[in-house]
Amino acid sequence: MRAVVAAVRFMLTHAWATDRRRLVVASALMTVGYLSSPLVGVALGALTDAVISTDTRVALLLAAVLALLLVSEMLMGHFGHLSVVELSDMQQLHLTDEVTRLTHGSTSLADLENPARVRLLTSVTEGLQRVRVALEASLQLGGAMLQILVTTVIMGMVDPWLLLLPAAALPPVWFADRAQRVLDRARDASADDIRLARHLLSMGTSAATAKEVRLFAAQDLLVDRHGGAWDRTTASLWSAHRRSALLRACGQVWFALAYGGALFVVVRGAAAGGVAIGQVVLVVTLAIQISSQVAGALGLFGALQGAGRTVEQIDELRASVPHEQPAGGAASAPAGLTRGLRVRDLAFTYGGSTRPVLDGVDLDLPAGRTVALVGGNGAGKSTLVKLLCGLYRPSAGSVQVDGVDLSTISRDDWHTRVATLFQDFARLELTLRENVGIGHLPATDDDAELGRALDEARARHLVERSPQGLDQVLGTSYDDGRQLSGGQWQSLGLARTVLRPDPLLVVLDEPASALDAAAEHALFERFSATARRTASLTGAVTVYVSHRFSTVRDADLIVVLDGGKVVETGTHDELVEIDGAYAAMYGLQARAYR
Description:
The protein is built from 19 helices and 10 strands. It has 3 domains: about 1-320, ABC transporter transmembrane region fold; about 335-415 and about 500-594, Rossmann fold (3-Layer(aba) Sandwich), CATH 3.40.50; about 425-500, 3-Layer(aba) Sandwich (Rossmann fold), CATH 3.40.50. α1 (about 1-50) crosses α4 (about 135-160) and α18 crosses α19 (about 580-594). It has helices at about 1-50, 55-105, 115-130, 135-160, 170-190, 190-205, 205-215, 220-270, 275-320, 380-390, 410-415, 430-435, 445-455, 460-465, 485-500, 515-540, 550, 570-580, 580-594; strands at about 340-350, 360-365, 370-375, 395-400, 405, 420, 505-510, 540-545, 555-560, 565-570. It is an alpha/beta fold. A hairpin with a 2-residue loop joins β9 (about 555-560) and β10 (about 565-570). The protein has a 6-stranded mixed β-sheet with strand order 6-7-8-3-9-10, with helices on both faces. Strands 2-1-4-5 form a 4-stranded antiparallel β-sheet, with helices on one face. Pfam families: ABC_tran. InterPro entries: AAA+_ATPase (IPR003593), ABC1_TM_dom (IPR011527), ABC1_TM_sf (IPR036640), ABC_transporter-like_ATP-bd (IPR003439), P-loop_NTPase (IPR027417), Type_1_exporter (IPR039421).
């Protein structure tokens, strides 16, 4: 019952804030329609008495009233439904937007890697479909309660014992509440398998994975694993549905017995001559109505309990987003760097793990310099980069920007001063203009600025070869757009990076993985030149991660990571001279190239 109350309160409050005019109109129309139902019974009973007494004028008048009430019941309910559907669509859109904002409302990407939070997100997104119908269910439940109240008063005027009939609906409500709890627990327990099934479906139907799936003949494996996940989900949910149905049936049997008792009372009174035939027709009609009203109300209780669980999970999601420092009280990013970035005793451990990825990292990244991060897989390079970008919160230690702790700087302000291209860069299947413009949204409609970024990323040919130029849709997920190669997608990612104005930190994390060695070297030469120009204006630090040492050797500073710690720093010549870890890796790769 608590979940139902929470769902009704949430949906009505949210609908009032979304569009109060539509809510008032829908409520008024549905109320008129619901009140027409019990009045149909009253008119039918009076019409029966008029016909028996051969009062033709009254009978014709009551027949017209009865027809009007029936038309009102159908039409008002129909138009009320149309109005509430429009409002429900608006609500779902707003809630989806809110869930999206909450998903990205934390300063740390680690929250999206937390299994408990991912499970919560899965349950919320699954439940949003139930919330979509919850507003109409709330109004219908209110209408059903009003119907039952009016029907009870009318029946009580015939025989006071009939006032007990609506009270017989209380046990079915209790059984329905228990039944819904069984279903909610089963849905929560199935969240992991549902997420797995979604992932496998995406793998099996995506063009990005189709090559390897077909070449490795993995179709049957994916289908089998997808089927297994759904079989486990289905088995759990069917078991819960069977137990839920049994509980609901117990409540319905109880009400059926009470319903039969009410009819017995009325028929006995009619047989004794104490009740008119019209009243018998009235009570039978109302008893049938109240039976369907209670059955409908129980169904609405179930729907609203499911929606109430989703409302609780949305509240949990809201509570899971840390309270950020208010924008007005947070420090601003500096206009330019004079000293650079300093990393002090930095440590980071992913949620659910006990082994730190970074531990006790101390590092100085001078303003205006290019810094290369090297090391084996799992050394912590990408994690360090994300900490510098402010995408993770350190487990210990700090990142300082010209002596100011990064955690005290406004997240949004710092992100606007960071230009990045990651190895797993986003392939945004939007227009070419939007694909580049997202790097600096105010420039999305500035063709000259977009052209500059495309030129610097050597991607101008993508515009020239596209029939619609900058407005060409890319990809085929939702439109018949242009397909791009991996290198072409990467060029657009580079254009997004260079579009960002006045960065203080430029990050290239394995950005040229789709390029050959010569192209990568040329790319980093261009970026080094760009970095030096930017450094003269803002003192920006350029950090890049690469496994190709022909590129790394040109950096002003090379940092070698191993096991989450900094083991060597220096220029290429200095690190080769000390003949340590860097020299060994460089020599191995040089021999391979020879």
